Amino acid sequence: METLYALSFGALLAAALYLLMSRQLLRMVLGLLLLGNAVNLAIFVAGRLSSNTPPLVPEGALAIATSANPLPQALILTAIVISFSLVAFTVVLFERAHRALGTLDPDAMREAEPRSEAAP
What we know:
Layout: H1 2-20, H2 25-45, H3 70-101, H4 106-112
Helix pairs in contact: 1-2, 2-3
């Protein structure tokens, strides 16, 4: 089961890096979203998937080594919120840039910047 998660992580990471290296801003946003999901999957896999023991252990019991680790799950919840807010901010930023410049091509956006004069 963990091998399937590792392969899924590799596929998500490869697709994210491919999209991030694209020259279109919409693909970059999708790559950023996939990268966040790949990291969440990696954190989830690090928290022992095969355990059936609940994370709440009665006092005096020695089942801590086999219980599920709740920390990666809490980290993933936080990462999901941060990833969603980052993608939402990026989409709004690109929408504003599209309205101001009329394009989503990064090269055309660079040409729209004012040229800086060389310092004397």
